Every structure is written in structure tokens, then in C-alpha cells.
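Bench log. Compound arrived from synthesis this morning; before running ITC I wanted a structural hypothesis for how alpha-D-ribofuranose sits in the protein. Inputs:
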Amino acid sequence: MTPRSIIIDTDPGQDDALAILLALAAPELDVIAITTVAGNVPQPLVTINSLGLVALADREDIPVYRGCERPLLRTLVTAEYVHGPTGVDGATLPVNSVGVAEGHAVDHIISVCLDAPAASVTLCPLGPLTNIGMAIAKEPSIIPKIREIVWMGGAFDEPGNTTPAAEFNAYVDPHAAHIVFTSGIPVTVFPLDVTHKALMLPRHVEALADYGTAPAVAAAGMIRFYEVYDIDKYDLPGAPLHDPCVIAYLIDESLFSGQQHHVVVDTTNEETIGRTTESTGTAPNATVMTEIDAERFFDLVTTRIGNL
Ligand code: RIB
Ligand code: CA
């Protein structure tokens, strides 16, 4: 079976890190590039972290392109309170001997799509949608080249995690999210409604650490740091593993289920900006995932990263 061509757009972040490691461990996927976006932590940290992750996976052949430094309109909001000052606290990532690829991430996304056959490129944004929104705005002719945008973001029946109304990735750049959801590109969304059901329990973390490999030990160390915030805030037995849901879906769609809706992003009201809602009476523009087979998901995550 031909591996699916994907670009991972990311703001590592420990959960981004496990998503990237899972993707690099998946023969089902061909990661043609990693593009970075300011989010959990600013540039250049998200780029440095992405470079370190491909080095950790011994995949320095995968180019890492530096992307936007801030949202399209709003001031950048970051989340060191969750991820720590480096963004990947809990692990020390190796130095990448190749270094960042030349050119801007947005231009690389455009270039890859323009050179690709119709509906052949899958974009996997794991952070604010700034790079994706800018690429669509700069070069709308890429739209028919994109097979699907699979995004971790938004919150529907769940409260937000950044404001009561908004999830972080949608809150940071709601205007870019608006561009994506009005582009006509098929969008599959992994909101908090489903990622809050993907809680990485201590036994999952121990199972990962027990592999003893550098990627597995680093991944377990990152989760042990990252989980403190959510466990304390929500009084949970484990931390939600948000971003790996995107990659796990691409590996095995049967892990998830959801419904098609017309998704709207609030870009106007300061109280609710970044809120994602499902509006009725309009043709669907997205599949919104709500259910997960959590045990099979964690089996996949731990065994694949453990054997990377
Ligand atoms: O709200 C969770 C999302 O925001 C995740 O992608 C996390 O990495 C942060 O980017
Ligand atoms: Ca992220």
C-alpha cells in the first residue's frame, strides 16, 4: 500500500512531540516535511524542538521549515504554563546536524502542493492554523491539491481550555481557522471533545518507558512533565494526548468516530473569540470527531513509538 503523503505543521509541545514520533514510526505515512508555527512556545523554540525530534528518531532526512512567528492578526499567546520554558520539558532532545531547511514554511507548503497531483497532500496541523491559513490566502490554487486537513483543535460540547469558550489552537489564531473552514478543503477535526477521552494513564507511560529506547524514554519523560498541569486543573487520572489523535487517525481510522457538521469559528467577540460551533442549515464543511477507542489508541502509540 502506498504511504500517505503528509506535512505535519506543529508547535512542539510534548503532545506534538509524541505525534511526530508516532508519524515517523508509521510505514503507512510518508512525512514529506515538518513545518513549525508559533504556539505552545514561540519561534525559534518550536523549530529547535522539531529539529531535535527528527534527530531523536534518527530521521534527519526529513526537512524542517520554520514558519510564522505570530498569528495572522492577534498577538501571540503561548502556553509555557503547560509545556515548560523549552516547550518540551521532561526530555533533552539531541541537536540536529542538518539544521533548518532553507525557505519559509508557508512557501514550502505552497510549493509541495503546486507540484503534487490533485487531492494528494494531507496537511496535519497540530497547533494554531497560521501557516495553513496563510498558504491558502497566498496561493488559493493549492486548494484542489489538498486531500484533507486533519487538525487538532476546537471544542464543541466541551468547555475551552484557554478561555471557557475556546481551545488553545483555535484561540491563538481564529482568523487562520476561519480561512481553513471556509476554504472548501475537507477538514477532519479532533477537538477537546475527543482528545479529553484520550487520557494517558500511568500504566501507559510506564509501558512506553519500559521499551528503554531513546525515543520511548524521551517520550515518557515529556509526558511525565506535561501531565502535571491537566491532572491538577481537571483532577484527571492522566493527561489528554491531544495531537497524536491526528496521526493515529491517519494510521487507523477505525479508532475514531464522529459526525459531519458546518463548523464556524468566532473571530469577532472578545469574550468568545476562537470558539468553534456547529451551525445548522448549512452544508457540512468538516467531520468532527467525538469518540475514541482509547485502549487501542494507546496500544498503537506505545508499541509504535516503543519500536521506533
Ligand atoms: O489545546 C491543545 C492543543 O494546543 C494541542 O495541540 C497542544 O499541543 C497545543 O498546541
Ligand atoms: Ca500542538
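What the model suggests: The pocket of alpha-D-ribofuranose (ligand 1) is lined by residues 11, 13, 15-16, 39-40, 126-127, 152, 161, 167-169, 242-243 (CB under 6 Å). The chain has a mean pLDDT of 98.
ITC booked for Thursday regardless.
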